[in-house]
Amino acid sequence: MCGRGVSGSSSAPTLGSLRLTSRGQESALRLLCSSREGLSRLVADWGPHPQIEQLCDELTPELLGAFADRPAGRG
What we know:
This protein is mainly alpha-helical. The chain has helices at 22-42, 50-63. The longest helix has 21 residues, at 22-42.
């Protein structure tokens, strides 16, 4: 994530589904990175801990909307 070599998997599109364009994907990645940086700033005074970094990586996508929050059949 955000230059860390983390990538998600994408599923094949289904009839009637919406997909991001290339520009949309780039914008979503910028939003994700910006959110990750903001979260890191909030916990910066806790010191450098690998577990905190891992939690920031895990929490950032959840804060932007988890797949589990999507209506059934649209994730």
